[in-house]
Amino acid sequence: MKATIYHVARRARVSTATVSRFLNGTGPVAAETRHRIEQAIQVLGYRPNTVARSLVTKATHTLALLMPDITNPFFPDLVKGVQLLADERGYTVLLCSVAGDPAREEEYLEMLSAKQVDGALLVGLVCGRETIARFARHGIPIVSLDRNIDYPPAPLVHVNHRKGARIATEHLLQLGHRLVAHVSGPIGLRVSHERLAGYREALSRAGVAYDRRLVVSGDFTEEAGYEGIEALLHTATPFTAIFAANDLAAIGATAALTDSGRRVPEDVSVVGFDDIRLAAYTSPALTTIRQPTYEMGRRATELLIDAVHGRMLGPGQQVVFEGELIVRASSMPIAAAQQAKTV
Amino acid sequence: MKATIYHVARRARVSTATVSRFLNGTGPVAAETRHRIEQAIQVLGYRPNTVARSLVTKATHTLALLMPDITNPFFPDLVKGVQLLADERGYTVLLCSVAGDPAREEEYLEMLSAKQVDGALLVGLVCGRETIARFARHGIPIVSLDRNIDYPPAPLVHVNHRKGARIATEHLLQLGHRLVAHVSGPIGLRVSHERLAGYREALSRAGVAYDRRLVVSGDFTEEAGYEGIEALLHTATPFTAIFAANDLAAIGATAALTDSGRRVPEDVSVVGFDDIRLAAYTSPALTTIRQPTYEMGRRATELLIDAVHGRMLGPGQQVVFEGELIVRASSMPIAAAQQAKTV
DNA sequence: GGCGGCCCTGAAAGCGGTTACATGTAAGCG
DNA sequence: CGCTTACATGTAACCGCTTTCAGGGCCGCC
User: Fold this and answer.
1) Which of A45, A333, B98, B157 is spaced 20 to 30 Å from A23 by Cα?
2) Considering Cα of B303, then B304, then B305, then B311, what sign does the dihedral take?
């Protein structure tokens, strides 16, 4: 039989109200009473039942984290950031992998309001805005990562994808590459769109014509990167560099290049995006745009908890992080010889 | 103002008991009444409050997942398996990264019993057995992954680490290697111990003497793998192959080899353990032992949910998976030339 | 026609806490 | 000395739901 506050009260010869006051530090409790209560708790091995508490306080100290796919190496770091900050603040996190499926997203959103979570961190959701609006109507604060939520306006944390992509592409251009291919993310996703836009921006600033044949669409997986580049090689469209929309795709692309006998970076330079943990250890080590993933997770969670406590910045608040170019071994200046044969 | 069951009852002109019966399918409800209730729910946008429900039913439909570090690429797949199965069964999962810190593990365990989770999945815990025993006393079912919990006996899911390690090492031996180094996991962890044991077993079966200078200890990270092998190279102890206790370490080791001018696998063969997602895409693609991570997550969760429902197999039940050798490009027969120079 | 059942429903007692309000006591003060 | 005041505690309502128990109709059946 688990001890309840009632048992503690009885044993300490006080009322449950006093025990509760003692537990929460609300209201005064005499030193001697305090001592008796401590004793009782100790002896009984009492732990307050948070469910009962939540029922009356209407706070569960639980945050929900909705994300597409934890299997993508980009996310674990984010999760860690969220987790750690939540922990510091006495919150606990409910993990929901929604697999990029709008129906599941909606289902989960429904469930969350029933579960009375205190707040929700929505990362890269793909569902319609009405779905989110409906959810928000329950009054649960939300913070969004990489997905703009206009109505109701929710705090947004993201990196400047466009600029990052531009920097990545400019890096390649500065190395002398003119035929830069791009493996994009899933079409329709804002992130993919932004990164593609950054790529085009860099091209156009450098006066290089945009060639849509050089853009293959992927879905942020290694498989797609591999297949995309394999297919591109089959078309015999020449290129000397690749900017992949994320590291996974870059790694897949590199594998496709290697399997077809090309060398990276001697024949083709490759740059990715994200700077996942293993990017430094692939061979060649991957040049990429670092996203401060862990930090973003922390910051987003901080904003969320603030929102839970009713402390919000102005509406439409945003925290934007900048991507940082990390030059490693997968990119190098275009070789003169290479210019001639262009792969 | 959020609608409660009381509001629904009022609007449908029935009692809360009837609404509850309708909601849970417990007890009969007349067709017409049913219809009125549906209407009311619809109009009010009512969602039952699971917190209140849990208070009385004593079931939260929440499972806790305690793991060392989600950042290790081995885990996300596991999490996914857990997540998906939990989802199918109507459970939700609370994520706790304990960072391999016994104190945090204990803290979390405490919190979980207060949070009234229905069950807990403990993966690779390092805390003392008394801690776990104390937790178990709260009556919360647990299932353990990769850590034997003897008292109270909890179902255990794991792979046969020893055998996997033996197979990995045997693979190297069969390729003609005799000087096989090993990057171990953190000493003291059962998993590390088992994998080391498997390595030694293979050596001894093949009549190869065990040389402790060939064993460097790591902690399952790339950094440690890198540094371990770098250090080993400095000692000038010759070796022609490496069996790393996990893929991360293998990748780090490969990087160290490459950075020092060695080629993998021409100069040194490398095999890992885990078969993380990216193992197939490193270059060279990594030979490794595949753990059916996703499946293990599912199976463990299944056992846990069964336990929650009081359906347990016999005491001391175990599910053991077998590791499978996946031969890729990072291992090859020892070259004649190499035998002479032995790195 | 009376009666045992079967359906369907409602009243009310909790689940384990929190908290507004009331109460009792002793100190402070003119 | 009587009155306020602050402190320490108790009483009881309530959070939103489930569930036991006890009917009230209505049927069939003897």
Assistant:
1) B98
2) positive
A59-154+293-322 maps to CATH 3.40.50.2300: yes
CA torsion, points B88, B89, B95, B100, in degrees to nearest 10? Answer: -100
Residue A92 in contact with partner chain B when CB distance is under 8 A: yes
**Tell me: the pLDDT tens digits for B59-86?**
999 999 999 989 999 999 999 999 999 9
Q: pLDDT per residue over A32-45, tens digit each?
A: 999 999 999 999 99
Element (H, E) at A42: helix A31-44
Strands of A241-244's sheet in order across: A215-217, A180-184, A241-244, A269-271
- Nearest CB to A255: which of B79, B84, B283? B283
* CA distance, residue B201 to nearest chain A CA (Å): 30
Six-digit token string for A88: 């510091």
Nucleotide nearest to B116 (CA to C1'): C16
Q: Inter-axis angle of helices A129-136 and A102-115, to 10 degrees? A: 0
Q: B60-154+293-321 adopts what CATH topology? A: Rossmann fold (3.40.50)
- State whether B282 and A282 contact (CB < 8 Å): yes
Q: Is the CB of A174 under 7 A from strand D?
A: no
B129 touches chain A (CB under 8 A): no
Q: Convert the pLDDT of each residue in B247-291 to its tens digit.
A: 999 999 999 999 999 999 999 999 999 999 999 999 899 999 999
**Contact assignment for A252 to B281 by CB distance below 8 Å:** yes
Amino acid at B89: R
Place B339 in a pLDDT band, splitting at 50, 70 and 90: low
Strand C and A210 CB separated by under 7 Å: no
Residue the block writes with tokens 């065990």? B210
Q: Residue B80: its chain A contacts at CB < 8 A?
A: 69-71, 97
The nt closest to A18 (CA vs C1′) is: D9
Instruction: Using DSSP, state whether B122 is helix, strand or coil.
Output: strand
| In this structure, CATH architecture of domain A161-287+327-341 | 3-Layer(aba) Sandwich (3.40)
Residues linked to residue B242 through DSSP beta bridges, in sequence order: B181, B270
Q: Integer distance in angstroms from the first to the last C-alpha of chain A?
A: 74
Sheet with B241-244: list strands edge to edge: B215-217, B180-184, B241-244, B269-271
Contacts of A313 (CB under 8 A, 6+ apart): A155, A303
Among the four given CATH numbers 1.10.260.40, 3.40.50.720, 3.40.50.2300, 3.50.50.60, the one describing domain A5-48: 1.10.260.40
Asked if the domains B5-48 and B161-287+327-341 are classified in one and the same CATH topology, the answer is no
Cα B43 from Cα B32, distance rounded (Å): 17
Cβ B63 vs Cβ B92: under 8 Å = yes
